[in-house]
Design a protein that fits this description.
Length: 126
């Protein structure tokens, strides 16, 4: 059985998907981009600000499922320019404890939705 997770504190889906799906004790989030959920505007000022918005969106989805970043076991980061990796990694890393950080892959892609620079999804377990 699956439970649809939604929150107004993260951007509404822009297609035929949900913010997250909880099945058993496992949460699968959709990729988050830097959309401010209050205004619907993209936050693309700089890569650190953009990544912070992405992480805050993920935090809101995790919270809606009764979880935190401590529950995250796997993350996937898609970036449009590998030269941004260090700045993205610094912001991303500030949301995790190094000793218990999740498994992760970071992949450079040709293009992301709405021409953003970073998209991140996570898998978390209660």
């Amino acid at each position: 059985m699956k439970t649809i997770i939604t929150t107004p504190n993260a951007p509404a889906p822009i297609g035929p998907y949900n913010q997250a799906i909880l099945t058993g004790n496992t949460l699968y989030t959709s990729g988050q981009i830097a959309i401010n959920p209050e205004t619907g505007e993209l936050i693309l000022d700089d890569i650190k600000t953009e990544t912070t918005q992405v992480m805050n969106n993920l935090k809101a989805v995790l919270s809606a499922a009764g979880m935190t970043f401590e529950n995250v076991i796997k993350s996937t980061i898609f970036i449009s320019n590998m030269d941004d990796f260090s700045n993205i990694n610094n912001v991303y890393g500030s949301y995790f404890n190094d000793a218990t950080a999740p498994a992760r892959e970071t992949v450079q892609v040709a293009k992301l939705p709405k021409n953003v620079n970073v998209e991140i999804s996570v898998i978390a377990v209660k």
